[in-house]
Write a structure and sequence with these properties.
The chain is an alpha/beta fold. It has one domain: Anticodon-binding domain (Rossmann fold). 34% of the residues lie in helices and 24% in strands. It has 3 helices and 6 strands, in the order E-H-E-H-E-E-E-E-H. Strands 2-1-3-4-5-6 form a 6-stranded mixed beta sheet, sandwiched between helices. A hairpin with an 8-residue loop joins strand 4 and strand 5. It starts with a strand and ends in a 7-residue tail after the last helix.
Length: 118
């Protein structure tokens, strides 16, 4: 499974730390980081199954199963979208993030990477 963490350079430390924590806690997944410039090209190259990013509703990762539109404004919710279905979370704890990653991985195995109705 491939995960991309894409945040602006002003959040570089948060971006790199998030990726490092995921790599440590889920060592079997491939994690890459990206800035926001040329993001679509990086998505096309890496083809992530999970995209964690800070540009709400402006990037479509294509057939990727899960995207997490991370709100960097604590007064705004974070959106988690899977196969066209979105939910909002008032905050995204590490446990919740790992749960989304694990659920995505299970879904990938179960459906061989195809989005299906839940």
């Amino acid at each position: 499974m491939r995960i991309m963490v894409a945040l602006g350079d002003e959040y570089r430390v948060y971006r790199e730390t998030t990726a490092a924590v995921i790599s440590i806690l889920r060592p079997h997944v491939e994690v890459e980081t990206a800035g926001l410039d040329a993001l679509e090209e990086q998505i096309a190259r890496f083809d992530p199954n999970v995209l964690i990013y800070s540009l709400p509703r402006t990037v479509d990762p294509g057939h990727g199963l899960t995207r997490i539109e991370l709100s960097l404004d604590l007064t705004q919710p974070t959106r988690v979208c899977r196969c066209g279905r979105c939910t909002e979370l008032s905050s995204l704890s590490l446990e919740a993030l790992l749960r989304v990653i694990d659920e995505t991985e299970s879904k990938l195995i179960e459906t061989k990477g195809e989005c299906t109705s839940e």
